[in-house]
Design a protein that fits this description.
This is Rhodanese-like domain-containing protein. Residues 14-103 form the Rhodanese domain. InterPro entries: GlpE_sulfurtransferase, Rhodanese-like_dom, Rhodanese-like_dom_sf. This protein is of the alpha/beta class. The protein has a single domain (2-93), classed as 3-Layer(aba) Sandwich (Oxidized Rhodanese, domain 1), CATH 3.40.250.10. The chain is 33% helix and 17% strand. It has a 5-stranded parallel beta sheet. β2 (18-22), α2 (26-30) and β3 (38-39) form a beta-alpha-beta unit. The longest helix is centred in the last third of the chain and has 12 residues, at 69-80. The N and C termini lie far apart (29 Å).
Amino acid sequence: MNLSQEDWVAQLAADENAVILDVRTGDEFNDGYIENAVNIDIHKGQGFIYEIEELDKNKNYYVYCRSGARSAKACQIMNELGIENAYNLLGGILDWEGDTVNP
């Protein structure tokens, strides 16, 4: 499900069962990420599938990438693997107006 930044942030803030998932590459992640995000690179192919299959299917996942395209695909894959609540951040981190962590 695609959410505007405003809706994504509001829903995330009210969700005690939330996990933030960054599906960009490790290099992109190291350039800055949304606080508390877990990084699983969608470009890992089957490795991405394996890591997603290990996730708790009862959690709600707030997914983002650089622009929103990879995270939309990630949400679709997550749904196919039995994770019902995956929310895509429209516009990705490019349009993100909140704080980021720079490692």
